[in-house]
Amino acid sequence: MSGGRPGLARRLAGPQNRNLWFWVFVGPFVLGLFVFTYVPLGWSVYLSFFDAHNTVSPTEFVGLDNYTAMLRNDAFTDSLWTFAVFTAFIVPTTFVLSLSLALMVNRLRRAQAFFRSVFFLPAACSYVVAALIWKMSIFNGVRFGLANTVLGWFGADQTAWLSTTDPPWYWLVIVTVRLWLQAGFYMVLFLAGLQRISPTLYEAAAVDGARPGWQVLRHITLPQLRATSVAVALLLVINAFQAFDEFYNLLSDARGYPPYARPPLVYLYYTALGQGQNLGLGSAGAVLLALIIAVVTVGQARWFGLGRSDEKGA
Amino acid sequence: MTINRRTLLGSAAALGLLTACGSNTGRDGGGSGGKGPRLSHWYHQYGEAGTEQAVKRYAAAYREADVAVQWRPGNYDEQTAAALLTKSGPDVFEVNGPSLDQIRGGQVVDVTDLLDGVKDDFNPVVLAPKTYDGRIWAVPQVVDMQLLYYRKSLLADAGVEPPRTLDALVDAAKELTTKKTKGLFLGNDGGAGVLGGTPLYAAGLTLVTDDGKVGFDDPAAARALAKVRELYKAKALLLGAPSDWSDPSAFVQGLTAMQWSGLWALPAVQKALGDDFGVLAFPADGPDGRPAVPVGAYGAAVSARTRHKDAAKDYLKWLWVDKTAYQRDFALSYGFHIPARLSLAKKADALAEGPAADAVRFSTENGHAEPLLWTPASRVAYQDALSRVIKSGANPESELRSVVRKVSAELSRVRKKYA
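^ inputs. structure came back:
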């Protein structure tokens, strides 16, 4: 047995092969992340500076032309505005609904696990399946659709939910399916946050004479949920701008997609991967959208003071 | 051998890597067993029972190559467009095109020579969009068309004649609308998707002129689109049906008295309604108008990335040029299509009488196909405008002015890029 320095292989493997086993388990995922995420991402940025119709190996450099074309494109900018409005609506709505569900479930003394599962179950449902159920069964526009049948009992005319733009009933369909699918997931996040709040805080508040209900919610629960709330709000904003599945399945047909309620990703899908096959222009749009989401997310995180309490505590 | 923890983990990791590295090139399994190279032939999923078995039978009969048929459900056009960027795509494939950018991008092989001596026997309306720069880039397989179905008994009960003008169509749809039945079904979006340029052709215009200019910069275009809006506004259109325009269910279930659908729906309509229906072209509008029928054709093309170009071309010629019995079988034995070959269409008994014969007549007398220069960007701009006019009541003149600008720019791009 030699008492000298161990070989390079041994040093890389680390004590008790810890480094080796770390890379055996983590390596495939890092490799996958690199190959399937970072390389395409970098390639997409590269493509965005080229004329790339029907090719991913372009040769004609066009500089920022794709970016200016995308920013001048009514269809793309309209989709951004539409989704800014949609975000402004869906984020607080989902936030309030999921928080309310979490508060209700948290107060239950019995069957809490049951109700938690009931509200969470829709999160396990595919967006595509939910969209098709909403479109074909509940909100189809003929007299035997569920919504029209119920309204028919009260003498109302049948409504073409997804085809009517005045009033825009299609938003009702889109918003309800999104709320149904998402609220349970965020409820679980809030529930986890609620269960981390120390009961002694509530006891102290009660001793100090705080009234249960709104006063305790405002001064104890909501401040204690700040980190969870910021995370939920960030995820909701990102999800709103990345909307694709339920919009595509509710509103598209074999011939395309109507101009209203067209999410930016659906537009980019048609531009880059649909029959348009304009991969340069689509890539420029994807970069712009990613930048917008990043700026909004960072701005929002700063606004909410994400991580500020950690710095204070440090 | 003793299996210890490390052996087990190592084997599992190796197995995982092997699984991850596996690939589906579309060339595995299901080949015809011919003596030549292995060819992969892609089709989109047809709704008609028996079609898949038929094309596999044709492929199995070819002895000069080992042809594997892939039957692909889902967004077929997107799948092929993406596959053509890689080497794992098809050798021969069915295509609803090819598009101008696919042709000019060198993604498909020139097949002009395969039609030597028989070119004039192919329906010129569907051959034109597959021709660019005097060369042919796909062999049309069958002709599909859209047309207006009407229920004779419902029209008779309401005292309405089958509409021959767009004004008459609007009036008829209003007359036929009752509490339970709507007058007309143009798709769940009110016609914005399926009608496309048809109202423009009905007004005597075109999408793109023969010399490559915008073909609808004319007041007649706005007038025709305003009438389609009138149908929507009058609540005479069926909207939100469980199945869309391509399926005749809404028509045969009595949800609508008239429906815009495809020739493929004719057998199902005939089975459900017997003789109680007729077919029409989209009615003419205005003094220069003419009835309009959109026609299209899936074609068979050869991918430029195939390693077996000559073998793929030989196979394509054998199937879609030489084997006329297979072409007739494919067009008429499963769904209901018009053979792309004029000689075969003339000999088809199923197309000789009744509504089917009317449909064939419309396709030859009033048929129009989307021009090759009508690129996806132009189509999106026009369909967005059409949707805004029909559903949101946007002003047709201003919407069309905006579309004319965009389409002109797109046509300039195409001319500049490919000059």
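Chain B touches chain A through 47 residues (CB under 8 Å). Chain B has a mean pLDDT of 89.
thumbs up if we can close this ticket
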